[in-house]
Amino acid sequence: MSDPVNSTLDSLEYRTEVKQLLDILAHSLYTDREIFLRELISNASDALNRVQFEMLTNHEVVDPERELAIHIEVDPDAKVITIRDSGIGMNRDELIENLGTIAHSGARTFLQNASKGPGALEEIIGQFGVGFYSVFMVAEEVTVISRSYRPQDAAARWQSKGDSRFSLGTAEKEDRGTEIRIQLKEDAGEFASTWRLESIIKKHSDYVSFPIYLKAQEDKEEGKVVNRRTALWRQSPSSVEADQYTEFYKQLTFDDQPPLLHVHLVADAPANVRSILYVPSRRERGALRMQPEYGLHLYSRKVLIQNHNRDLLPEYLRFVEGVVDSEDLPLNVSRETVQSNPITRQLRKALTNRLLKELKTLSEQDTEKYITFWHEFGIFLKEGVAMDMASRDQLVDLLRFHSTRTGPDAWVTLREYVERMQPDQKVIYYVVGDSLKSVMRSPHLDYFRKHDLEVLFLADPIDGFMVSSLREYGEKQLQNVDDANLDLPETPAKEEDVESVPDDAFDKLVERVKQVLGDRIRAVREGKTLVDSPARLVSPDDDTARDLQYIRRVLEENYVAPAKVLELNRHHPTVTSLARLVETDEQNELIDPVIEQLFDNLQLLEGAYSGSPADMVERIQRLMAAALRQ
Ligand code: ADP
Ligand code: MG
Which of 149, 192, 259, 563 could cross-link 61 (Cys pair, CB 3.0–4.6 Å)? Predict the structure, then answer.
């Protein structure tokens, strides 16, 4: 490649974020530098997909007959690798825009995490790549010469050493597409070998759907195609080996972990569909996907129509990866019309059904694996129960709960719960809180524990959201145990010899508590369901939105929950002593702080304490001092 002598060679500065990225990459000790090739091939493949899509409707393109392919050439002596594609190409402005700023979402995440230390960076380079710029891990200098598919656009040339600048000029290039010439760094000479490149391509890019030709520069022939190129999803499931699914997954997603589950759907009615869907093994990757990048690859007759289609699965299944190919989608569909196409709706139904069925089978046949799934993605299914009426019936049996019977280590389904309900039990009980620890200690559970009534623990912020739309399972209502008017199967048996606060003393105590707590509580009354706890807070009947408190507390900064009813346990030693003190020594300076603390304890257990820790510590110290004085 000779330097074109021209006067329009401009030198431009990279955007700041690119400079930062390049600086980190240049100094990174990342050992798997080979992924630069995966990134460049993936860009070439994107460019080929785009021109293929363009040509469906536009015949005014440069080189319409040219084979859609990638050619890689190696010069071992000069330590140069050249990668050519016949893709969509870039004009001068596009070169500046695409290779001077940060387009790649992996690269953006990379920069955000740059401060978290080398471990985080390595993981991102490995799993997501950092796009085009990863070439500077191995390149001394990179030259890109590109000719856009638009006949009127001139070819252009971009060049950079990966420092703070790049230069732009004109170029001679007759054919459509992009050519990237990499002058390797001194210490990256190992990559100037066809043997090495072939093994990297097989490892990371085997399923790229366009042929990748590879040859050494001195070879006169065209080079041989080194990638497998199979559209795995178009094969019959019985002919695909398990590790082919895994390899395809890794190459599709760049995830280095195998998927937890795959589903291969081949059907011709009601709609033609060839699809492979994957459930990844970890959600952690999903956190990076919080960027609007999720979605399935949608093909029609092997032409990629969309990279991230979101219409083929309900939103709550956004953690699912995969490919969908349907010959029933018209080839010239625009991305917008995919959404409104009736075929899309049919496909979505078929895919969702199949995936949920597969999860059900997993839950029945491999409990341990299903629980792994549940830990990672259960929250998405809960979201589905809350948001997606169409899937609800299938989703409810996929839910898993901890309960008063399972404890924190085992799980129960709604079906199992109902099957083992007490004979006279009418409803499904649950307790809501902001952590498993606090719901397990909830004073609401006293009665249920004593009577061996199972209560489900709901401790995810999304749980309240879920139960407020899932009001029943089968014929059974779901009921919060903090309900003020629980219709309990029987009243708790009181042991005769337990001391109880007499009526008039109790009335006085109630008055005093009301006076101290004021409008922080709605009312004070006797709690008949309490056994081991001195008190509890119950929601008044009219507080219909209380299950949403936990999620609102997460979402709204200044959220204040509506006041509740305070119930006191007339048999609890703290309450009996307090009542006695109010009756015999109402000036006692311990009374008010004890009432305050009793109330705050309940708020703490519910994860709803909004007061100041300093105030509480001061009060506790006063109470401790008094206790020690006795
Ligand atoms: P990403 O591929 O995630 O968008 P990259 O950093 O890999 O990010 O690439 C940046 C952009 O450069 C691409 O989005 C694309 O527009 C352009 N690009 C890179 N390589 C090519 C190529 N071979 N042909 C056409 N465009 C390309
Ligand atoms: Mg890319």
Answer: 149
Pocket of ligand 1 contains residue 131 by CB under 6 Å: yes
Q: CATH homologous superfamily for 503-629?
A: Heat shock protein 90, C-terminal domain (1.20.120.790)
| Residues 423, 334: Cα–Cα separation, whole Å | 59
- Check for a shared fold between 10-225 and 232-365: no
- Residue 551 in contact with ligand 1 by CB distance below 6 A: no
pLDDT (tens digit, 9 = 90+) per residue, 507-549? 999 999 999 999 999 999 998 888 889 999 988 876 666 777 7
pLDDT tens, residue by residue, 474-496: 899 999 998 877 777 655 555 55
Q: Are 107 and 113 in contact (CB under 8 A)?
A: no
Token pair 């490649």 is at which residue? 1
| 449-463 tens-digit pLDDT | 988 999 999 998 889
* Residue from 256, 267, 255, 273 nearest 320 by CA: 255
**Order of all β-strands in the sheet with 156-160:** 10-13, 165-170, 156-160, 139-147, 177-184, 80-85, 70-75, 212-216, 224-225
383 within ligand 1 shell (Cβ under 6 A): no
pLDDT band, very low/low/confident/very high, at 555 (cuts 50, 70, 90): confident
Whole-number Å distance between alpha carbons of 136 and 141: 8
232-365 is a CATH 3.30.43.10 domain: no
Per the confidence metrics, is the pTM higher than 0.90? no
pLDDT at 576 over 80: yes
State the distance from the centre of ligand 2 to the C-alpha of 113, rounded, in angstroms: 19
Closest ligand (CA of 145): 1
Nearest CA to ligand 1 atom 4: 104
10-225 CATH fold? Heat Shock Protein 90 (3.30.565)
Q: Is the CB of 132 under 6 A from ligand 1?
A: yes
Nearest CA to ligand 1 atom 20: 43
Query: Residue 103: CB within 6 Å of ligand 1?
Result: yes
Q: Which helix (H) or strand (E) holds 502?
A: none
For ligand 1, pick from 17, 132, 133, 144 the residue to mutate: most ligand atoms within 8 Å of CB. Answer: 132
> Is the separation of the CB atoms in 533 and 448 below 8 Å?
no
Ligand nearest to the CA of 42: 2
Residue 321: exposure state from Cβ atoms within 10 A (0-12, 13-18, ≥19): buried
**Nearest by Cα to 602 from 385, 442, 431:** 442
Domain map of the chain by residue range? 10-225, 232-365, 503-629
Q: How far is the CA of 37 from the centre of ligand 1 (A)?
A: 13
Ligand 2 midpoint to CA 103 (Å): 8
Q: Rounded mean pLDDT of the chain?
A: 89
